[in-house]
Amino acid sequence: METALELLDDSLSEAIREDRSDLIRVLSGHAEVLATASGDVRRVRSYYEQRLPHVPDPAFALYNFARMLSRLGELDQARAYAAKSYELSRSEVTDADQDLVKAILTQWPDLDEARI
User: Fold this and answer.
1) Euclidean distance between CA atoms 45 and 32, whole angstroms
2) Dihedral of the alpha carbons of 98, 36, 43, 7, in degrees to the nearest 10
3) Position with higher pLDDT, 115 vs 18
4) Which of 8, 43, 80, 106 is least crowded, fewest Cβ atoms below 10 Å from its Cβ?
5) Chain segment 14-52, per-residue pLDDT in tens
6) Spatial separation of the C-alpha atoms in residues 25 and 65, rounded to whole Å
């Protein structure tokens, strides 16, 4: 698995140099799955961070990153990313965005109170 991750890392570095958002999303997603399977949380976090600036819908990506940080025990950072996700999604009208708001508030209910 390490060889596969090294190949993905090389390809991801090239995609970043070329600013190929579509390829960055695909490669970092595959690499994140492999890193998760191998238990390499440092790499999982790195792949999330590399992917975030390139996602078309950042609210969902920020929420997933917040959940991952929460699982790692980085609660303050997790809450900060959840707050960004909440701010992006709370004013949207799609069912998916409203479901995201509910999911965020389930884990971080104080975010709704913080904006009052």
Assistant:
1) 8
2) -110
3) 18
4) 106
5) 999 999 999 999 999 999 999 999 999 899 999 999 999
6) 14
For Cα atoms 65, 62, 91, give the angle at the middle one, nearest 5 degrees: 150
CA distance 75 to 66: 8
DSSP per residue, 44-83: HHHHHHHHGGG-S-HHHHHHHHHHHHHHTT-HHHHHHHHH
52, amino acid identity: L
CA distance 12 to 16: 6
Residue with tokens 């890392």: 9
CA gap 111, 102 in Å, rounded: 11
pLDDT at 93: 82
Any idea where the domains of the chain sit in the sequence? Answer: 1-55, 57-116
Token pair of 49, please?
Answer: 């961070």
Q: Are 82 and 108 in contact (CB under 8 A)?
A: yes
